[in-house]
Amino acid sequence: MDDSIFTKIIKGEIPCRKVYEDDDVIAFLDINPLSDGHVLVVPKEQIDLIWDLDNETYAHLWQTAKNIAQAIQAELNPLRVGVVVEGLDVPHAHIHLVPLYDRDTLQLHHDYPVDISDERLDNIANSIKERLIAI
Ligand code: AMP
Fold first, then answer.
1. Ligand 1: which residues within 6 Å by Cβ?
2. Taking the CB of the first residue and of the last residue of the chain, which one, N or C, has fewer CB atoms within 10 A?
């Protein structure tokens, strides 16, 4: 597996504006911020899907995100700090912490709500419920 851009940052091969680091997690400013104080919180282990992290790392990642969000809130005073988990560009799990200074910063890119029949909604709910029993 090739090193992701975030692994290169973790290894010190690429610079970043770091706000936090410990043995398992690093956090730095996003290079293309959606707003002032947009931070990425990243596990050092290079795993694509955040849902595939082991439970301990997952919990630590979110606890770190909470701490940093509170620091952002206190320092930058946004309306609140939003959270996005997307990862469509960088296949290395990460949490976006996006300070929201208005209602538009995280505007979704498509029209919503989508038009879904009641039958389809029932099917979706049931299939997720059944899958959960198997997990
Ligand atoms: P996504 O994978 O869609 O969740 O987004 C990846 C994010 O990583 C984008 O917001 C990029 O601006 C950000 N990003 C990419 N390269 C760097 C970098 N070298 N330093 C900081 N942020 C980066």
1. 5, 14, 16, 28, 30-32, 40, 86-90
2. C
